[in-house]
Amino acid sequence: xxxxxxxxxxxxxxxxxxxxxxxxxxxxxxxxxxxxxxxxxxxxxxxxxxxxxxxxxxxxxxxxxxxxxxxxxxxxxxxxxxxxxxxxxxxxxxxxxxxxxxxxxxxxxxxxxxxxxxxxxxxxxxxxxxxxxxxxxxxxxxxxxxxxxxxxxxxxxxxxxxxxxxxxxxxxxxxxxxxxxxxxxxxxxxxxxxxxxxxxxxxxxxxxxxxxxxxxxxxxxxxxxxxxxxxxxxxxxxxxxxxxxxxxxxxxxxxxxxxxxxxxxxxxxxxxxxxxxxxxxxxxxxxxxxxxxxxxxxxxxxxxxxxxxxxxxxxxxxxxxxxxxxxxxxxxxxxxxxxxxxxxxxxxxxxxxxxxxxxxxxxxxxxxxxxxxxxxxxxxxxxxxxxxxxxxxxxxxxxxxxxxxxxxxxxxxxxxxxxxxxxxxxxxxxxxxxxxxxxxxxxxxxxxxxxxx
Length: 453
Fold this sequence. Notes:
The protein has 453 residues and is mostly helical. The protein has a single domain (15-436), classed as Up-down Bundle (Growth Hormone, Chain: A), CATH 1.20.1250.20. Helices cover 68% and strands 1% of the residues. Helix 7 runs antiparallel to helix 12 (279-300). The longest helix is centred in the middle third of the chain and has 30 residues, at 179-208. The chain is globular, with a radius of gyration of 22 Å. This is Putative monocarboxylate transporter 10-like protein. InterPro entries: MFS, MFS_trans_sf, Proton-linked_MCT.
């Protein structure tokens, strides 16, 4: 939430290369900004709608595993590798976006992800899916996701929280809508053809990337400094000197060890505990309330008196308690209620990644702050579902898996208390200037106003 910034109507705005006519002006919180927000909404939806709905594909992939004793582990590893590579490569995606622009990075991501799904349609063994679905789709997803989230900070000031809420709600909308048609397609046309339909959906991400006209003002350089040309020079090392950011970037990955366990294993859990119930409905429930939570808490984070970090902290505590309660839910109705509340907490956490990063590091550091955060999240997100699968193979149920998955978010919420005890100075946005080729636009460029954390 950047409510302490001056109103965009009164401040000259950064110059943007529109990729067609050369140089144009962008008014923050204006019409073009909302077009970018809409494109980001679709990117989030296509990327995470597919990732979150892996539980629908899981039973069929489970049956493809040759080793039935480790079938749960091998099948869940397909989805976990996709999630892990999506987050592990986020720092690289952020550097690519800073170097080449969000437009090129997102377009390439959509193409790579689509190719990965297309190749998955010809993979008849689970190990092949580790490469095509887990690897290629994950690479494409990270190239699309990280820049589409970070680019919003360059188009919004007063409505940044709301914009993040709307954009990240895309994954909730798609998560709510995709499970039922995916399940129907699996029954009607099989897994291979379903992969091909998903490839078309992922290809639409590349079209959305055209809307991302990243501002030239991504970093600040003094007049004596040269514009960075290599990846090492683009790397923003100053964010790691921010102690509050360091605590935040440690706490969030810790909280996510059990994050994807419900998304991957909940459908199978329902089939075991409530054979006559529909497990896909629970994923839809989480998607609906997650979308509502993203818009609600995103708008709430725009209030000057509200800290996005505190909201994330509360959501982790609630998320941990709710995950613990999945194992204790003895009726389908109670499980539906738990999933509705779990989705609300998920929406709060996800929608505030961008505002929290900007609050802690400033607009200039937000892109790489988000990228490195997502990169560190890759290990817990990858390890969680396979670990739950191993426990299921050994014990025959998911009770212990859900109990263990609920502990890390609670511990992380307690750890985040230390963020509020660390005192730092205000985040300053230094004078920035466009590239030398845009001298004309540079006259209309001015320093961005400082933001208090």
